[in-house]
Amino acid sequence: MNGQPGSARAGGGGAVGVVLVDDHAMFRRGVRAELETAGRGAVRVLAEAGDVDEAVAAVAAHRPGVVLLDVHLPGGGGAEVMRRAASASPDTRYLALSVSDAAEDVIGTIRGGARGYVTKTITGPELVSAIGRVADGDAVFSPRLAGFVLDAFSGSIDVAAVDEDLDRLTEREREVMRLIARGYAYKEVAKELFISVKTVETHMSNVLRKLQLSSRHELTRWASDRRLL
Amino acid sequence: MSSTPPPLATPLAGPVATAAGAPPGAVGPGVDPVPLGGRKATRDIRNPVVGGVAAGVARHLGMPVLWLRAAFVLLTLLGGSGIAMYAALWLLLPADSHFEAAAPGIESATRGGRRPGRVRRLTDVGPAIALGALGLGAVLMLEALLGRGVVFWPLLVGAVGIGLLWRQADEAQRERWRDGAGRIDPVRVVLGNGGWASYARLAGGLLLVVLALVLYALRGGSLSLARDAVTAALLAVAGLALVVGPWVWRLASDLTEERTERVRTQERADVAAHLHDSVLQTLALIQRSADDPTTVSRLARGQERDLRAWLYSGESTDASTVAGALRAVAARVEDEYAVTVEVVTVGDCPFDEGLRPLVQAAGEAVTNAAKHAGTGLVDVYAEVHERAVEVFVRDRGPGFDPEAVPDDRYGVRASIVGRMERHGGRAEVRSVTGEGTEVRLHLDRTTIDTAAADTAVSDTAAADTEEDA
Lengths: 229, 469
Fold this sequence. Notes:
In chain A, strand 1, helix 1 and strand 2 form a beta-alpha-beta unit. Chain A has 10 helices and 6 strands; from the N terminus they run E-H-E-H-E-H-E-H-E-H-E-H-H-H-H-H. By secondary structure, chain B is of the alpha+beta class. Chain B has 16 helices and 5 strands. In chain B, 33% of the residues are buried. The N terminus and C terminus of chain B are likely disordered. Chains A and B meet through helix 4, helix 6 and helix 10 of A and helix 5, helix 11, strand 1 and strand 2 of B.
């Protein structure tokens, strides 16, 4: 992620409680160690889980601010965790963390409710910053995810068929996505477009919402072809 | 990361429906691969109304599907030959899907239950309802027109029933295709992966067929006669099942074993080959250069990229598409300079001579960034439009003043800006001291023909850093 550490903490008030969900114990250990050094004071790891059942139980027990969620997980994948834990801890937000770069998994997880998607090669400080953003309710887009969004919402839009705002990105949102895909950090996007960082964040949240709710034909068909819907 | 999402909605050109069925890694937009041995008509079972015959034939003949639907309906009304033709085509034309193969890592995760399973769509009911309504409408209309429903009723009820059963056969086949390694057992052959829609189709179909039989038998007017006829028919079916059943069962279990064994052998061979070829070699190299951290991290990075691409994305780094060519360039620079090049592409198109200068200039820009930025990360973003291709190469290095570069230095002036301008494109270098550098490249795709001619001659100046893609 390109966000700067701490730039968006809206007075957060103490450390963000995090539950780590990944089926590789070694990876969990590594992330935990990184979060404890890079995220001292900003992030607190409450629990770890290795499959869907454990994850749902852990989320229900600790009600964390953010769950770091692996996309591939025994018991039905990360999306299943979000579905089942939603009622027990409605305020918990999810950040998908995966080694898989498959678009199916990116879109499936975002549409399942995750507020962001980063790959496992992310550095410690960047991960801490991404957790902070998600905890504040912002969206976290990696260049890769931004590229996917542009792909999903691109194409000539049949004006007659579009009657919902959800089915298209505004020109501004498209510009923001394009800059993110080009590797710009939020602050740089803001500077480039002469808008505030807060406005950039608002655009990102809107894009995330559209991605989750849009019934855009291509998106729906794309997802339903893969039986994700 | 040198990988990008495969084009999701193939927005640029060509019918999405045909491109969606292409295997992962295939050239995406607008390229409808023609299979060896000519084109074969298939049924379109992705979104069938009844059996996907009209859509499939329309696609084959290049006609609007509405015409064919109308033709079938018309022929049906004029003596019923439409239904017979439709049924014959349904039986004879193969379905258009194939066994779906995702990247190995994804498949493995799916098999192991680590990804969300497929959810049955409610829309599956739609075609069944359409089918029922169609049948009912046809029956009522024929009765109104001809007034001799006695023969038509059983015939049409039976036809609808058989249609439903065939439809279920399609669905079950589709389920089998989606799950290549799955067992073949007779229950699944009939039911697919279950679900109430399958049961409903099966029960509805059988019920309608039996109803047709009863209606036919009732023609004589006597209830007991009808009962006898139906009983006889059912007995015949049961006897046939008893005789043939064991054979089918054994055939199915043999097939299962054979298929499982084949799948397992292939998988083992794939994995073994891949591990042997690359991972083991890399491990050996790492051991040999254990005291050189730069080399070790470069090797690990390259291997990670390879393995990730192989396991999860199934996307190519060959030079058949623009995205693939850019990824190949990025991979080369990563290997050479021990940096990370993150490539994100939106859209894709075939990589031809006209686009070569663009990729070469991009490669030059990436190489410059890798050499001079010193941050270890280069972002590459490419967007393929209908008319043009744009590439952005960005780093967060110290930046430089493009005007201050001495004339004898080829890097930026000749191999990036000069090359792009020679081929009718644009290049812009934006560098802010302390904030990094961004190179923006733009090339119209309409200039393809004029650009292709002089590529080979004029690019020798910077040939030392170019690849022979």
